[in-house]
Amino acid sequence: MKQVNIYYDSDADISHIKGKKIAIIGFGSQGYAHALNLKDSGMNVVVGLRKGGKSWELAQKIGIETMEVEDASRWADIIMILIPDEEQPEVYEKKIKDGLSEGKYLAFAHGFNIHFKQIVPPEYVNVFMVAPKGPGKLVREEFLKGRGVPALLAVYQDPSGDTKSVALAYAKGIGATRAGVIETTFKDETETDLFGEQVVLCGGLTSLMRSAFETLVSAGYPPELAYFECIHEMKLIVDLIYEGGFKMMRKYISNTAKYGDLTRGPRIIDEKVKEKMKKILQEIQSGKFAKEWILENMAGRPVFNAMLQEWENIEAEKVGEKLRKMMPWLKKE
Question: 64: number of CA atoms within 13 Å, CB side?
Answer without folding.
Answer: 31
